[in-house]
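User: C-alpha cells for this one?
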Amino acid sequence: MENNKKTILLGVTGGIAAYKAAYVASGLKKKDYNVHVVMTKNACEFITPLTFETLTENRVCVDTFDRNFEFKTQHISLAKVADLVLIAPATANVIAKLANGIADDMLTTTVLACTCPKIIAPAMNTAMYENIATQVNLQILKDRGWLVVDPAEGLLACGDVGKGKMPEPDVLIRCAEQVIAKEKDMAGLNVLVTAGPTQEAIDPVRYITNHSSGKMGYALARMAARRGANVTLVSGRVALPEEPFVETVRILSAQEMFEAVSSRADDMDIIIKAAAVADYRPTTVATEKIKKKDGEDDTVIKLERTQDILKWLGEHRHEGLFLCGFAMETENVIENSRKKLTKKNVDMICANSLRTEGAGFAGDTNIITMITKDGEKSYPRLTKEQTADVILDEIMARRAQK
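Assistant:
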C-alpha cells in the first residue's frame, strides 16, 4: 500500500445508517489511515461519539464552539490535514447545505474549508432521495468534483422498499482507497485484464473448468484503477464482489473471452492475461443431458483446441501495446515460461508454481517470477494486491524505457 498514513475526515450525519459508519471508521483504521470523525448533533442521537473515538483513537468533533478542542481553530485545522473527506451517511439536509455553501455546524463548516477530494454517500427514504431538490443538489456536488456513491436498493428502515440504503462499508472503503490510496501514475492509460476460469460445456448440465478463483486478475484490475487507469476486466464466473471503478465484461467460455478481448485489443495500452483459459473444449455439445447407459463403464469425450488468446494477441499486437501473460506451471517453471514468452511474442510472463505453498489457486497470496527477454525478477510471498502492484510497477518502468 502507498497510504503513508493519510488522513481521512469521516463525516457522520443524522440517519439510521449512522451505525454503519462505525464499520467504515474501523475498516479505514485497520488499513492504517488516520481517521478523524466529525458528527452532526443529530448523528449523536443514533450513535455516540465515544464509539468513534474508541475505533479511531482520535477525539470526535461535534460542536463548533467546544472550548475543549485540540487546535486553535479546529474546523480549519482539520480541513488543512485532511487528504480526503468522506460523508457517510449523508442526509438530504446536509447534502442541501453542502451544495449551497451553508456552514452552520462543525461538519459543514469544516467541509467548506476543505480543498481535498470529497466523497458523499446519500442515505434516506426513497422519495426523499428521488425528490428533484435532492437530485439537483447531488448534481451540483458532482459538477464541483465530488464523488457521489449511489445508494443501494432494498428494504429501508421506514419500511419502504427502494433506493436509499447506505452502501455497505466495504464499498465505501474501496471508494476511499480508489481516490487516495495510490498516485495516479497510470492516468489516461487503457488497461484490459482477464481473470477467472472459463467453462466449456459438455451438455446443458456439465462443463469443463479449472480451479481459478479470479483473485489475481481482480487485484490487478483494482490496483490499476486505483492508479488512475481506465480498466476493462474480462471475467469468467467467480465468487468475487464487483469492482466499483472497473468496467466488467462477463463471459463463460474461452471463445467468449477471445471475442471480448480481441474486439477491444486495438484500444488498449496494456493487456494482462491473468485468466485461466481452458486449452480444450468438447468437439460437440450435447443438446440434452448425457445419461448413463446400462452396461457402460466408461465414456469418451472428444476434445478440440480452443483459440489461444495470448498467442493471437502477440500476432496481432499494435505498436505501443504492452502484453503480459501468466504461466501456472507444475514443473520446469522458468524454462516453460520462457518458452511461452518467445512463442507467444509477449513482453512479460508472470510465472508461478502450483507446487509452491502460497502461490496456487484460490489463495490470497502469490509468489511470482517476472520473466522478460532480458532477465528474471523473483519475489517472495506477497498478497495478491501487493503482487499486482509490483507487476504494474514493472510494466510502467518498461513502458517508460521504450
